[in-house]
Amino acid sequence: MSRKFHFTVPYAVPVEDLHRAITTDDAWQTRFAVAETATLDLSHPDGADSIRIHMTEKAPDDKIPGLVRKVLTSELTFSRVDNWQPLDGAVAKGTFEIATGGIKTEMSGTYEMHPTAEGSEIEVIGSVRVKVALVGKAIEPLAEKLHRRVLAGECHSIEEWLDTRPDA
């Protein structure tokens, strides 16, 4: 059985600017320029106003919770694929799929980007399943928390990128 989750990531920028940044290769290349153990593959299979982002990364050993370290079968790696569609009015939809190596984890769900009074937000709805006997249910909240933290980091990075490139 999987754990379901639902949260939002607020942005202090208009939805049009947020969507433009998320679907721009340079915003992602800038974010990943300092990620030493990450790879990034970007494509636009549905046109210029959409994007497919495939990210992989090896987790630093000192950042892996003890409970997770105890059940790892190899290095902890992450593979995430996000797909964003063009804006439809003031809303854009996307999907995500995350898998890990070293521990069998599956996470997937949807994104919905829409305007708010303060700017915009991305609503995240998904589920996570960790296939490890006895402790899988204890690790699932950690995986959700990590996804929240990653998306919050992306929020900061994208807002910073937009601040330095107002015409991008």
Keywords:
single chain, 168 residues, alpha+beta, 4 helices
Describe this structure in words.
The protein has 168 residues and is of the alpha+beta class. It is built from four helices and seven strands, in the order E-H-H-E-E-H-E-E-E-E-H. It has helices spanning 15-22, 25-32, 66-71, 136-164; strands at 3-11, 38-43, 51-58, 77-84, 92-101, 105-116, 119-130. It has a seven-stranded antiparallel β-sheet, with helices on one face. A hairpin with a 7-residue loop joins strand 2 (38-43) and strand 3 (51-58). The protein is globular. The model has no long low-confidence stretch (mean pLDDT 92).
Write a brief caption for the model.
The protein is an alpha+beta fold and 168 residues long.
Record the SSE blueprint.
Layout: E1 3-11, H1 15-22, H2 25-32, E2 38-43, E3 51-58, H3 66-71, E4 77-84, E5 92-101, E6 105-116, E7 119-130, H4 136-164
Antiparallel strand pairs: 1-7, 2-3, 3-4, 4-5, 5-6, 6-7
For the termini, the CA-CA separation is 43 Å
Number of helices: 4
List low-confidence stretches.
none
Shape: globular
Query: Would you list the SSEs in sequence order as H and E?
Result: EHHEEHEEEEH
Strand residues, percent: 35-45%
Q: Which structural class do you get from the secondary structure elements?
A: alpha+beta
The major β-sheet equals: 7 strands, antiparallel
Strand order of the largest sheet: 1-7-6-5-4-3-2
Number of strands: 7
The Cα radius of gyration reads 16 Å
How much helix, percentage-wise, in residues?
25-40%
Average pLDDT score: 92
